[in-house]
Amino acid sequence: MIKDPKNLEELARKTGRRATPTLIIGDEVIVGFEKAEIEKALQKAGIA
Q1: Domain containing 37: what range?
Q2: CB-based burial of residue 41 (10 Å sphere; 0-12 exposed, 13-18 middle, 19+ buried)?
Q3: Separation of first and last alpha carbons in the chain
């Protein structure tokens, strides 16, 4: 991600941030490793 400026710009465009790790699950954007938030977003998206 960081090595490819195109990916970093896409991240900034989609989330308004340049922080990693950033996960986009459905319509949820999660910055950092927040296990509870990740699990909740996965359930909401019908993935878990």
Answers
A1: 5-44
A2: buried
A3: 25
Beta-strand (E) ranges in 1-48? 22-25, 28-31
The whole model's pTM is what?
Answer: 0.71
- The H or E element containing residue 6 is helix 5-15
pLDDT in tens, the chain (48 residues): 567 888 888 888 988 888 888 899 999 999 999 999 999 999 999 997
Two structure tokens written together for 26: 């459905």
Number of domains in the chain: 1
